[in-house]
Amino acid sequence: MNLVFRKSFNFKRIVTFTALSILLIISLFISSAILIGYKVTNPMIKDIDQVPTDYGLEYEEIKIYNVMDNITLSGWWIPTKNTPILQNEKAVIFAHGYGYNRTKMPFDSLELAKRLSNEGYHVLMFDFRNSGLSEKSPTTIGYKEKTDLLSAINFSSYEKGVKNIALMGWSMGAATSILAGIESEEVKAVIADSAFADLATYTRESFSYWTGLPEFLAVGFTTIAEYLFPEFKISEVKPIAVADDYPPGKGLFFIHSKKDGAIPYSQSQLLHESSQNSELWMPPKGGHIRSYKHFKEEYEEKVLLFLDNYFLRENIVDRPFYLIS
């Protein structure tokens, strides 16, 4: 009897230990997913420590109201003084990357804004939700940021009367620009620097890079994160799904460094191959959204020629454009 009892007792201990171990693993898994999901949707907010007047640019402090979810966005309207006579006004809207803001990026965004202003473009620079001076609301890496960008387009169109608009985005802002650009008639061209093609696929493939955890955990973590954070719709952020819908009169220009360690340049190649109406430039170095920093003059010239082609400006001569290099 004692032997039978001892065996039964040991079996119950093993079952109990196993069950508790499984519960602990599940709890750790869910807790880790919650922590990662929270950190992803609440990146550290960087300060604004520059203003356009530091670059000799006049500007207006603006507030953009997102009617979709009542978020107020902060930004600058930088009017150009060089609008050519008998030509329509044109504007370029900047869309910054994840974790950055209108000025805090790995390159000098106000320097680029100055060049565009000198060439006759109004420039709108703003902070996405949960960034810079805009209202706090969970970051969604493109899902709700698309409505932020559409609100900025509406501001340029209805508040400033500018109907010819280009979007210029970097990383998250690049993907968001592709998604928003197809939905707006005012947008004539989109420049996407270092975009991802499909957030769900990219998240799985880059999971280890961003978290340090094994790649096989990616699907489980992202599934739990989407369930626990309803605004985080990873599976619905797919620039590649709309790239081919761009009509011939609306341009797409992809820029992606071959040395990008955060988002592989193959993502822009996929977008380019999926679009019937796009151009691609892959600088040989630069890192993630650092091509402008390393190839400033060439970057500006390629961007300006691309914009010229779609805004039908008169001064498009003497700007050679090269595709894949």
From TrEMBL:
The keyword Transmembrane applies. InterPro entries: AB_hydrolase_1, AB_hydrolase_fold, DNA-binding_regulatory. Residues 91-210 form the AB hydrolase-1 domain. It holds the Pfam family Abhydrolase_1. Signal peptide: none annotated. GO terms for molecular function: hydrolase activity. Keywords: Hydrolase, Membrane, Transmembrane, Transmembrane helix. The chain crosses the membrane at residues 14-38. This is Alpha/beta hydrolase. It comes from the Bacteria. The keyword Nucleus does not apply.
